[in-house]
What does this fold into?
Amino acid sequence: MAVEPQTKAILDQLAAMGGPPLHELEVPQARQMMEGLRALAAAGPEVAKVENRKITAAWGEIPLRTYTPSGTGPFPVLVWFHGGGWVLGDLEGADATCRELTNAAGCVVVSVDYHLAPESKFPTAAEDCYAATKWVAENAAALGADARRLAIGGDSAGGNLTAVIALMARDRGGPAVRFQLLVYPVTDAVFDTRSYRDNADGYLLTKDSMVWFWNHYLRNDADRANPYASPLRAANLAGLPPALCITAEYDPLRDEGEAYAKRLEAAGVKTKLSRYDGTIHGFFSMTAFLDLGKKAVAEAAEALKRL
It folds into this structure.
């Protein structure tokens, strides 16, 4: 279908703003640009409690932000990994989405501020997120949460990290993860799918930007084949937690996300694939402007409550 009207309005507004494309910027400039765009976004809803803390892992301290819903715990708990191509993003950028999921799903959400590339290359972000997930499982009671109802989730690069942490938890004997929420996940370090060809430019996330992100994240070309970087290349996906995979029609990452969902299902993992036609990468966090974003968050929250 054609780009739906609300999404088109956002694309038109971004085009009118002008400026150099992301892949032509140095990393500090790109981060500054993202901060400027974030200032245009709406704040998330109020939640019962927000707490900041830090934990220590192999690569240093990891900031966490914990969101608690109203009501009486212990609550289910979602560990959330933000997007941004492993190069951009932080707790502030993920704040509105985490608040929405906390209220809509009635769960504690723990947002992870993992170390970014290129200062910290692969596998630092993945190891940070695994360490944070283990910490949440071990300290759930102190968070008012129930470690037996632990889910992980993220968008874009955070979706990649979600898939990777699910693999790590299986391969390393824990922690037990009940559900994985994959929002337009990055699953393979190649750029030859039909969605990359059809959506290379003009739909917010571009092929050139993804090449830029991957080049900053990986240490070398050999990392591209590592399943903890490219989970679609994992030899075996059996034994992973149930998944909801959300994709967007006009997204270069559409096909690799859908291929991963189909491989999960073929491996016997209960998986729902939900494509949102007419919209773009990033729509899940654009609930202030896009009805499809609201619908996707509601779908994610319902899946979290159910599983």
Summary: The chain is about 40% helix and 20% strand.
